[in-house]
Every structure is written in C-alpha cells, then in structure tokens.
C-alpha cells in the first residue's frame, strides 16, 4: 500500500515536471521557436486546459458524493462520524495550505530560471562562431554552468518543499482509513448497538467502514487536488505576467501606425486624407526620443519631413541614436514627446528597411531575394527569374547562383553562416532592387563594402527611383545625399 502510494506520488511529480516543461515552452517560444509560435502556444494551452478541466470535473462531482456518503455515515454512526471526518478534513486543509504556499513562489522562480538558462543556451548556439573567435568557450561554459547550478538549486528546494506536501497528503490518506474504524468503535463500545448479534455487528462495522472510507476518499481527492492547484497556480502566475507584458506592449503601440501600415502593402493604400502632400513618407513634429528601458534621451525636438526625391542622410557618433531614429520611423519605438507619422505603407509601393544586421530566412536563393513576398504571395511562381538574375549580377553575386545550384534549389545551409558580411550586404541590396520601393531606409547597409561598390549600389537605388534615408559614416556617401542639412541631436541629417 505504502509502495503504491509512493509510486503514485512519483508519477504525479514526473507528470508535473513534464507539464512544467510544456508551459515553459509557451513562455519562451518568442525567443526560441519564433518560426511557429502559434502552433506551440495552442498545444500548450490545450494541455493546460486539459489539466484544468480534469480538476474542474473532480470539483463538480465531489459535492454530490460528499452529500450522499455524509448521509449514509450519519445513518450508522450518528453525528459523531460526519463531524469527526469533517473536522479531520478541515485540519488537513489547513496543514496543506501551510505546505502549499511556499511551493507556488518556488515554482514561479524555477520557471524563470529555466527560461534564463534556455535563453543562454540559445544565445551561445546563435553566437557560437563569435564566441570561438574570442576564445571565450571556458568563460561562456562557466557562465552557463552558473545559471544551471542556480536552476538545479531551486529545483532541489522545490523538491524538498513538495516532499513535505506529499508526506502531508499521504499521511492524511492513511490516518483517514483508521478514523473510519474509530468513529464506529465509539458508539459500539458506548453500548448504542448492544442489542445487535455479533453477525449484525460485523455487517454494521463493514458497512460503516465502506461508507467512511468512501467519504474520506472524497475528501482525499480534494486534498490531492492541492498538488495540482499549486502547479496550476504557479503556471497561471507566470502566464499572467507574460499576458500583462504583452498587453502593456500592445497599449504602448504607436497610434500613428494603423493595422494596415503595420504590415506589407502591395496596393497603393495611401488614402490621401492627410493634410500633408501625398509625396510625404514621414512627418516628424518636435520629436523627443529616449531609450525605452533606461530613459536616456537621444533626440530632442526634431522636426523633419521626408518626401519623395529628397534623400536624407543621418550621421553622428556611435550610440548617439541614429538607428533609434530609424526604429522610431519604423514604429518599433515610441517617441517620448511630439509625433511621428508614417504616411506610406511597407513594401514595394512604400518603404523598405535594410537593417544594420542583414537577415536571411531559411529557403532557396529566390526566397532570399524576394523575401518576404513569397509568404505574402505564395503563388508568385518563377515569372521574374530574369529580374532576379539581373539584380544578382548588379550586386556582384552571380557566383551565388552556381553555389546554390539555381534559384529554386533547396539548400541545407544557413545563409548567414555561408555568406561573408560583404556578401550578405550585397544580397540585401539585391532584395532591395527586386522590391524596388519608393523609399529605402538603409542602416549602415554598406559598412562591409568598398567605397566604389557602395557608390555603385547607391547609384542603382537612385536609378530605380528610390528616395534614400540612410545612416552611414563615410563622407563619400554624402554626395549621394547631396543638399542642405538639418541638425539632429548628437548626429546630423543631411538632405538631398
Ligand atoms: N534595445 C535597447 N535597449 C537598451 N538600450 C538600447 C537598445 N538599443 C539601443 N540602445 C542604446 O541606445 C543608444 C543609441 O543606440 P543606437 O543603436 O541608436 O546608436 P547608433 O547611433 O545607431 O550607433 P551606431 O553608429 O554604433 O550604430 C545607445 O546608447 C544604445 O546602447
């Protein structure tokens, strides 16, 4: 009996560990499984709901069975039986409450540490080469190990606390079965059933034992639920935190960016209702911009209008907020004061951003060049092979066609691993030429290329009719953005 109960506790514990893992994934899916977060979250939510519904079904049925067996117990033992069993349940609940409280906070702490540890793993996996260049393997190993040790320490503490809870639950179960005989022994020895024959007495004892044990069993079920409740409380707390963060982020979203402008738009969706000229892409009025996490002020009272044909170059020292200004233009950061209006859409008919770190998705060479149009128009087919090949030639990546085995050949490599920084920047330009937007926002997009190549690429952009908003350090770039200048915080904007 003892063995069966321990095994049950262990199985429950392992089950809870498994369940914790699943919920953990739902919380860290944003970091690790960005490719398919919706599916992961829906699977986890499904499991979570199953656990809740099993708990709810037990809670719904319990009152009926409790009422029936309380009546039966009262019938054979009088008030003594039900009162002592109810009193026993109340004491059990109080003890459980005391044992449960520290487990919930420990479980939340464990979830957080597990997330930190996995995030560290992912960070090393993504930056393995950089770490190897720094010969920082031992350092990273030590740092990861430190996180693992603190996670294991918390898990050990959690197990100790859970051990006491399980001891409490099992003790309640065993003492309960003894109580069933005690409650019938009292009326028997006090002479209530002195007129019964031994056979009738045995029948009475056995019937009462059955009823009492069943009644105590109902209470045991409720007490057992406490271990599930502690798990659910911990996960609910953690998921609640995630939800609150997402809600507050959603609330902070810049109002100037409508839902339509938050995604790519291939139709000419400019409504023309704005009082500003149709050729204006961005309108900034007395904008003050600060780093969201630290509040450090980067830009103060910047007013700027970026319109078609008037390229802008943003220059300045490192860390002065050039990229941050682009983040604000792209709606990723909110201004502290003033207003930023984006009056065009994302995509070929509007604006395309080339960020400082090039990004390449998994897939064929074509998918890299037309990114992200394949997902927007999956049936685009191979109608524009010629254009893609021409743009690859223009950026000096003809050999990539041979390396990839053609435009549509599936490749098993990670594009960021096999391309040099310069090649990545060239491929990003091929993408830009293919998309051919009205406005191109270029954040140090040619930092790994020579001045000549930079000049050529910028020249093609202008030939294709793009208005450029670029961040760069080289004086040679200024010629492309030739014109007057507007001061801007620690940096400068120069207009063509
Ligand atoms: N996500 C972030 N969280 C906290 N601080 C940030 C974040 N991104 C940037 N910062 C800080 O904001 C400041 C401006 O950063 P930004 O990237 O705009 O600089 P920059 O002018 O583009 O520099 P560089 O020329 O080196 O690219 C820096 O001090 C940087 O440390």
TrEMBL record:
Keywords: ATP-binding, Membrane, Nucleotide-binding, Transmembrane, Transmembrane helix, Transport
Alphabetized CDD domains for the sequence: ABCD_peroxisomal_ALDP
Domain called ABC transporter: residue spans: 282-493
Entries under SUPFAM superfamilies matching the protein: ABC transporter transmembrane region (SSF90123), P-loop containing nucleoside triphosphate hydrolases (SSF52540)
GO biological process, one term: long-chain fatty acid import into peroxisome
One Pfam family hit: ABC_tran
Protein name, as recorded: ATP-binding cassette, sub-family D (ALD), member 4
Source organism: Columba livia
Organism classification: Eukaryota, Metazoa, Chordata, Craniata, Vertebrata
Gene for this chain: ABCD4
């Amino acid at each position: 009996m003892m063995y069966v109960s321990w095994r049950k506790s262990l199985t429950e514990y392992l089950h809870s560990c498994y369940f914790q893992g699943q919920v953990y994934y739902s919380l860290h899916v944003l970091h690790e499984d960005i490719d398919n977060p919706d599916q992961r979250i829906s699977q986890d939510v499904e499991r979570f709901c199953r656990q809740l519904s099993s708990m709810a079904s037990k809670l719904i049925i319990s009152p009926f069975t409790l009422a029936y067996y309380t009546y039966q117990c009262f019938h054979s033992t009088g008030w003594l039986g039900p009162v002592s069993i109810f009193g026993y349940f109340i004491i059990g609940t109080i003890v459980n409450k005391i044992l449960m409280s520290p487990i919930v906070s420990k479980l939340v702490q464990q979830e957080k540490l597990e997330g930190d540890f996995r995030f560290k793993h992912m960070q090393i996996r993504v930056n393995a080469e950089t770490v190897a260049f720094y010969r920082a393997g031992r350092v990273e190993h030590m740092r990861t190990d430190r996180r693992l040790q603190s996670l294991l320490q918390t898990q050990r503490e959690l197990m100790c606390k859970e051990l006491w809870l399980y001891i409490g639950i099992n003790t309640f179960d065993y003492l309960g079965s003894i109580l069933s005989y005690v409650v019938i022994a009292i009326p028997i020895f006090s002479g209530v059933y002195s007129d019964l024959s031994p056979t009738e007495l045995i029948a009475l004892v056995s019937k009462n034992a059955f009823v009492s044990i069943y009644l105590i069993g109902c209470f045991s079920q409720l007490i057992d639920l406490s271990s599930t409740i502690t798990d659910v409380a911990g996960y609910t707390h953690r998921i609640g935190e995630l939800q609150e963060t997402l809600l507050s982020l959603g609330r902070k979203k810049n109002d100037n960016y409508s839902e339509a402008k938050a995604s790519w738009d291939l139709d000419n969706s400019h409504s023309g209702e704005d009082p500003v000229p149709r050729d204006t892409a961005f309108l900034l009025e007395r904008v003050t911009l600060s780093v969201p996490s630290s509040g450090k002020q980067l830009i103060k009272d910047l007013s700027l209008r970026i319109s078609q044909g008037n390229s802008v170059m943003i220059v300045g020292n490192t860390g002065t907020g050039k990229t941050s200004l682009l983040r604000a233009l792209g709606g990723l950061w909110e201004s502290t004061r003033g207003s930023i209006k984006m009056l065009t859409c994302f995509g070929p008919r509007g604006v395309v951003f080339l960020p400082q770190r090039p990004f390449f998705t998994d897939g064929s060479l074509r998918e890299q060049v037309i990114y992200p149009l394949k997902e927007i128009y999956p049936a685009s087919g191979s109608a524009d092979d010629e254009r893609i090949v021409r743009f690859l030639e223009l950026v000096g990546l003809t050999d990539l066609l041979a390396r990839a085995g053609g435009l549509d050949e599936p490749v098993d490599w990670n594009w960021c691993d096999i391309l040099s920084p310069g090649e990545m920047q060239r491929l990003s330009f091929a993408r830009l030429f293919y998309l051919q937007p009205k406005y191109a926002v270029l954040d140090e997009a040619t930092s790994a290329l020579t001045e000549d190549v930079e000049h050529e690429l910028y020249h093609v952009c202008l030939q294709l009719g793009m208005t450029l908003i670029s961040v760069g350090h080289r004086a040679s770039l200024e010629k492309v953005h030739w014109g007057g200048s507007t001061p801007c915080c620690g940096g400068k904007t120069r207009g063509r």
